[in-house]
Design brief:
The chain has 21 helices and 25 strands. The protein is 36% helix and 19% strand.
Length: 661
């Protein structure tokens, strides 16, 4: 378990503003009062409280212990005494307030759901990405329960083997009474999604933490009570009372998901179980101080009570079985926020990770029984519906505008093998190509700089792997070292694999079976890579490889796997290096693969099959692929990572001809 006591905490008081005083506003206020008492560090200054009326603001500023009260949230954000803003307002105000807070230089603690619409969430994530110096955190407090944290760690440690299946429900009955009055929460304009936005997003946050990225969803939604009474007469309910989904995870595991706000008798039934190859873990938030675990070979389940051996429990109480509570989860959430501000681990889920949750719940809302992959969810990667239209559906002037040549590059390591590397780089530059490299320690950096070449891509690490703790630390260490070299040479993308490659391209640490724990570790490691990339101002790519011919035993080699990881993390600093040579050997269907991966592609690399030589020497129709890429709207880098079957300059001419549609 993580030693959370070692996390840095603020040494100077943070100025806090609270906007909104309902259920969650009060929870935030209690958390701000208690975070330093429980975890240490400087006590925050509760500077200013804002609500819709003067009476509410004055009343709750006094009750919650804030120094000042106002009804002007924009004045709150302009206040120089405020460092961090808690936003607990109705959903329709989330985007405007959060974006304004970021623009004003404030850290943001925002209650879920992130936004009314997927488009709003995408804009908010983009805004946060443009302000990396500010910390963002979404209020998924159930992730902080020590029992949940312990369960997630058990799964990562392989206690129940490889996760095979997930079953989750989140039911409440706050809307079960058909005579309950109509409210803004039941409209798209005021509430956004219904049960999915209020309850289901919590279940998704836990599902992702336990099982890793989602690959595909098939869902139905239901409005169980179509109209509600109001003073003006019955009004229609616009958003869902319940949602039901089947889930396929990127790991290959399967899942079921259900949520309802009209389930009589259910108060906070956030319940899930994970079936693994060697056991099962069961949890229910209504009994939040218990985990039930059955290991293979045991007669039944064993109850585990919360206690100081679980993450964060001991900070509140030294004795096991003395029960944790809802609001203590919020205190841990506040600790995660202020620790991140003080330079500690990234607070999670931030806006980028919250966007992944939003994509999943909006995919469920739109599925209507149709399988939806993440690439199908209303414009992932910041694409709008308009941008996602096929070219044939666009106006003629727009088609002309988007028909552009690609940025072409070639790997200097595979051409003119009898020439020094700096000569090869200079010659590629003379011919109008950017340059790809492999391992930088093999070369004289001074000579590479003198070549005058523009470097498109280079191996972004020297050693390490995504699948385990030791490998991840080595990967991050050498990636940081490589980032410095990349910046010196002006390399545009730094390339990663699932593990380091040795002699002949074989994995240094081969893996026969990728476990669920490996998936979760890989995702965690790549998120840390994104943090590193933000710090260094560089971009990494994750490359697919082929297992049958060149790279047997490399974990996460298939394009399907690399795409799932990059899409799940969805950070602009981590993109996909889609290698069509490897994909043709391992998977095929290249045009559809490009289409599915389009929002996350950082570079496309090519070589023909068989032989790994220039386009036109094998079975792949690269001219057709080039036309399809133009139709999709892709005009980014395409690199030839191929041997020349004969003269290298003729090989480069053939490559240029194939990708000049």
């Amino acid at each position: 378990m993580e030693n959370t006591a070692s996390r840095p905490m603020p040494t100077e008081a943070l100025g806090v503003a609270l906007v909104g005083t309902g259920f969650m506003g009060k929870a935030h206020a209690m958390a701000w009062h208690n975070v330093a008492t429980v975890f240490g560090g400087a006590h925050p200054r509760l500077e200013i409280l804002c609500d819709a009326t003067e009476a509410l603001s004055q009343r709750f500023a006094g009750q919650f212990g804030f120094a000042r009260a106002t009804t002007d949230w924009q004045a709150v954000l302009a206040d120089a005494a405020v460092n961090v803003v808690s936003i607990t307002t109705p959903n329709g105000l989330h985007r405007s307030m959060a974006e304004a807070a970021l623009a004003a230089g404030k850290h943001v603690w925002l209650e879920k759901p992130m936004a009314l619409t997927l488009e709003d969430a995408e804009a908010m994530a983009a805004m946060a990405s443009a302000h990396p110096e500010q910390v963002t955190l979404l209020g998924y407090n159930y992730l902080r329960n020590p029992a949940f944290q312990a369960a997630a760690q058990m799964i990562r440690d392989g206690v129940i083997g490889t996760p095979k299946a997930f079953r989750g429900v989140y039911d409440e009955d706050y809307s079960a009474d058909p005579d309950l009055a109509w409210s803004w929460r039941m409209t798209h304009e005021g509430g956004g999604l219904g049960a999915l936005g209020d309850l289901g997003c919590h279940l998704v946050s836990q599902m992702l933490a336990l099982m890793g990225p989602v690959a595909e969803i098939t869902a139905f939604t239901q409005i169980a009570i179509p109209a509600r009474p109001s003073p003006e007469g019955p009004k229609a309910v616009e958003n869902e009372d319940g949602a039901y989904a089947l889930v396929r995870f990127a790991s290959g595991a399967l899942g079921s998901f259900a949520t309802s706000r009209v389930a009589h008798g259910r108060k906070c039934r956030l319940q899930w179980e994970v079936h693994g190859s060697d056991g099962t873990i069961v949890f229910d938030q209504e009994n939040m101080n218990e985990l039930w675990i059955c290991r293979a070979g045991e007669a039944g389940f064993v109850r585990h009570l919360t206690g100081p051996e679980q993450p964060d429990f001991a900070a509140f109480c030294p004795a096991p079985g003395h029960n944790f509570g809802f609001n203590e989860q919020k205190v841990i959430e506040a600790r995660d926020l202020v620790s991140a501000i003080a330079g500690g681990p990234k607070a999670q889920p931030d806006f980028a990770e919250g966007l992944i949750i939003e994509r999943i719940i909006h995919a469920m809302a739109s599925s209507n029984g149709r399988p939806v992959t993440l690439a199908d969810t209303n414009a992932p990667g910041g694409k709008s519906r308009e941008q996602a239209r096929p070219m044939a559906a666009r106006p003629a002037r727009e088609q002309k505008k988007m028909t552009q040549t690609f940025t072409l590059a070639a790997c200097a390591e595979m051409l003119w093998l009898d020439k020094p590397i700096e000569w090869r780089c200079a010659r590629l530059d003379e011919m109008g190509f950017a340059v790809g490299l492999w391992n930088w320690p093999d070369h004289d950096l001074d000579q590479l700089e003198k070549s005058g070449a523009r470097f498109s891509i280079m191996n972004g690490y020297l050693r390490g792997r995504l699948t385990d703790d030791d490998g991840a630390e080595e990967l991050l260490k050498t990636a940081r070292e490589t980032a410095q070299v990349g910046k010196r040479l002006g390399v545009e993308r730094l390339n990663l694999h699932g593990t380091g490659l040795g002699e002949g391209g074989l994995p240094v640490t081969p893996v026969e079976t990728i476990t669920g724990a490996m998936w979760l570790k890989a995702e965690e490691t790549l998120r840390r890579i994104c943090d590193l990339a933000e710090e260094e101002g560089v971009t990494f790519t994750l490359e697919n490889l082929n297992l049958p011919v060149d790279h047997p035993g490399v974990p996460f080699a298939r394009a399907e796997d690399t795409l799932a990881l990059v899409a799940a993390i969805d950070c602009p600093r981590l993109r996909l290096n889609l290698d069509l040579y490897h994909a043709q050997i391992g998977e095929g269907n290249l045009i559809e693969l490009c289409r599915a991966a389009l929002p996350w592609i950082g570079e496309i690399q090519v070589a023909d099959v068989p032989g790994r030589c220039e386009p036109g020497t094998g079975e792949i129709n690269f001219a057709g692929i080039a036309r399809a890429l133009v139709d999709m709207g892709y005009h980014g880098p395409v690199g030839m990572e191929a041997w020349a079957q004969g003269d290298p300059e003729r090989a480069l001419d053939a490559f240029r001809a194939a990708f000049t549609p």
